[in-house]
Amino acid sequence: MLPRTLLTLLARNGGHDVVCSIHHALGHEVNDPDRFVTRAVFAVNGKPAATLDFGPNTSKNPQVGIHLKFLRKDDTIKVVWLDSTGNSGQARGTVLELTEET
Predict the structure, then answer these.
(1) Predicted pLDDT at 57
(2) Is the N end or the C end of the chain the one with fewer CB atoms within 10 Å?
(3) What average pLDDT does range 22-38 have in this prediction?
(4) What pairing do the DSSP bridges indicate for beta strands 4-12 and 15-23?
(5) Is 37 within the bounds of a domain?
(6) Does residue 26 carry a pLDDT above 80?
(7) Are 28 and 60 in contact (CB under 8 A)?
(8) Number of domains composing the chain
(9) Domain that holds residue 25
(10) Per-residue model confidence (pLDDT) at position 27
(11) pTM (2 d.p.)
(12) Are 95 and 72 in contact (CB under 8 A)?
């Protein structure tokens, strides 16, 4: 199975949570405990917003996120991740509509 990355935007606490689900099952498929996601970089409109670094105790399929207060309609959000063996994946999305927290 190829890795896949999903982005979700949730209204929370006066801003929006950008949640990234990294389906990086490679570590389980080859039974290699040394293969894990090491970094995720979030960007908004091409500008870095956050870099998250991980260690070997990270889930093989982590769900990570950041909180942003400055998003606007039509902003582009991108996340790129890297694993301990040099494999990578990414997801990109455009904010179509912003909602208030319910």
Answers:
(1) 87
(2) C
(3) 71
(4) antiparallel
(5) yes
(6) no
(7) yes
(8) 1
(9) 4-94
(10) 46
(11) 0.86
(12) yes
Q: Is residue 101 part of a domain?
A: no
Q: What are phi and psi of 29, to 5 degrees?
A: -65, -40
Q: Among 41, 31, 79, 34, which Cα is nearest to 57's?
A: 34
102 located within any domain? no
Do β-strands 15-23 and 63-68 pair in parallel, antiparallel, or remain unpaired?
antiparallel
CATH number for position 72: 2.60.40.10
Contacts of 18 (CB under 8 A, 6+ apart): 7, 8, 9, 42, 65, 66, 67, 68, 77, 79
Tens digit of each residue's pLDDT (9 = 90 or more) over 62-99? 999 999 998 988 999 999 999 998 988 999 998 887 77
* 65 touches 20 (CB < 8 A): yes
- Residue 100 resides in a domain: no
Instruction: Determine the pLDDT at residue 64.
Output: 93
Percentage of the chain lying above the pLDDT 90 cut: 42
* Distance of alpha carbon 90 from alpha carbon 29, whole angstroms: 20
Q: CA-CA distance, 38 to 82, in Å (whole number)?
A: 6
